[in-house]
Amino acid sequence: MDFLRPASWEEALAAKAEHPTAVPIAGGTDVMVEINFDHRRPEYLMDLGRIADLTEWEVGADSVRLGASVPYSRIMEHLRAELPGLALASHTVASPQIRNRGGVGGNLGTASPAGDAHPALLAAGAEVEAESVRGTRRIPIDAFYTGVKRNALEPDELIRAVHVRRAEGPQQFSKVGTRNAMVIAVCAFGLALHPGTRTVRTGIGSAAPTPIRATAAEEFLNAALEEGGFWDNGRVVTPSAAKQFADLCAAACNPIDDVRGTADYRRHAVGVMARRTLTWTWESYRGARHTTEGAA
Ligand SMILES: Cc1cc2nc3c(=O)[nH]c(=O)nc-3n(C[C@H](O)[C@H](O)[C@H](O)COP(=O)(O)OP(=O)(O)OC[C@H]3O[C@@H](n4cnc5c(N)ncnc54)[C@H](O)[C@@H]3O)c2cc1C
Prior knowledge:
13 strands, Enolase-like, domain 1, 5-stranded antiparallel beta sheet, alpha+beta, 22% strand
């Protein structure tokens, strides 16, 4: 195995163009496990550790440009206000040691349906900045996951950053595991309220071959909230609307039975998480409206 150590982003792109089978390594918390278990024996391993701008982020007016290798611990520490859903998801990843090394670029590279960043990215709205010597393109997060542990990257492309929409409303992330920490999701759910566009977005993990959005559930809820004037009057979402939303989220799943849980359990749990996260985010939205009105 040859070890490539590009000193700059340009060198990394050139090396990937020359050796498209080279496996990039960022935190190594997925790659090293695969190599140690002999699931993967790449001809070239390409260390991205010398490229400083991959660990930096920039907060813009509408979105955060998150370098591909920014570790979860830094997201939790520095981007809680801008990216609350992703910060909550980061909290649930493994242990402090893994959170200090692993990041969103690696989660996207692996594209496991159980990766914790995915539901949060889908719910917030994100684009993956992919680059090769041929140029740069932004891949909408919904189009990024193409199959079980497959993604839309071309063999010569690397992920440079992820552009995640800045939160303009409450966001939540919920995960079911077989214990409280150091656990791969049995299933997970992300929800984000976008009051500016009066829309709700979802993200489901570990309950289909890829991370997915529950688009029918979103459409139903968006229409119900609009029709009832809920964004303006701040009323409590009716139990029947919350139940229908939860049922549609469960119906969006296409899970499997495996050692971590049955397909039926996953569908049920997604419904429960959908209802709970809707209640939490909506209560928080109502609270914020009340505070704003009180101050006016
Ligand atoms: C003990 C343990 C517990 C874990 N628990 C969780 C958990 O609870 N939740 C969870 O989601 N994950 C978990 N993981 C998996 C892992 O930590 C995450 O997927 C993490 O986000 C990977 O990030 P990384 O930087 O370490 O990626 P790496 O291992 O360096 O890379 C992962 C993949 O992404 C590719 N890649 C990395 N950077 C780039 C780039 N810039 N461009 C293109 N491709 C790239 C690599 O080639 C590889 O295919 C766990 C892992 C371990 C070992």
